[in-house]
Design a protein that fits this description.
With 275 residues, the protein is an alpha/beta fold. It contains seven helices and seven strands, in the order αβββαβαβαβαβαα. The protein has one domain: Rossmann fold (3-Layer(aba) Sandwich). The structure holds flavin mononucleotide (FMN).
Length: 275
Amino acid sequence: MARRSKSGGLLLWHWQAWSHFLKCPSESFDLQDSQDPQRIIFFRISCFSNQRQCICGGKENHMKTILINGSPRKNWNTAMMLREAQKGAESVGAETEYMDLFDLSYTGCRSCLACKRKGAERCKCFWKDDLSPVIDRIFASDALMIGSPIYLGDVTSQVRGLIERLHFCALSYDDYANYFTGKVNVGIILTMNAPMAFYNQAYRKKAEEIAQSFRALNGEVEVYACCDTLQVNDYSKFSMAGFNEAHKKEMREKQFPRDLEAAYQMGARLSGGEA
Ligand SMILES: Cc1cc2nc3c(=O)[nH]c(=O)nc-3n(C[C@H](O)[C@H](O)[C@H](O)COP(=O)(O)O)c2cc1C
């Protein structure tokens, strides 16, 4: 589903370039809002794959699922959601690998343009730091579950850096085609203070943009918004009067278990399961 920017030449060029990049002649997309308002799903229809085929039905699953935590906190909301997604992936037999982006030393794209050199290996980031091997592993995987807290209306800078580098090395500067011919399903988990109504009004468009940026991986892309999270255990110790602690605790008790279950299901589904 193509959307066009109305914001002038540069933005239009930018969008045209990216939409061309994201377009694949043998494939088509539908953006579907499911019954569940927390989920955005992009179905890739008639996608091709050069990846291993998974045998569903609980018999055999050779899929590899990478789970990436884009929060600096290793045991809080985003990490908990991803750990459940990992359990879901493992429940259908996928091999999993979990990592914390904040353990890695890297920046966003350095514009070295090594990935655009004539004859260079495609879909490879040549910058020598901790992220390049991760990018290699993502391209070689079957499913990616990436989680990020919302920071000032966007993903964390670490997730943004990963997106820049993952996508730029798969982008042809000859014709804006997508060099990547494999297929990686992508599950994006966003956690935030904002309640669902505010997410729908203010962040949903951003969530769709983030999902769009993973379409170059040629798989199904899903977004799950985990709203109204508990940010600290004891609000009385912080100057955080803008939040109602009783409400936050109630959300943690009643809604968060549902979010965890949704993460589990997403991990299983995108890793080849029927859940
Ligand atoms: C620097 C910073 C900026 C934040 N900005 C937002 C924001 O713009 N909108 C929002 O809903 N929550 C915002 N939050 C709250 C976090 O998104 C929320 O607490 C999230 O669930 C934290 O994830 P974690 O527990 O995995 O660290 C912000 C938190 C921090 C630390």
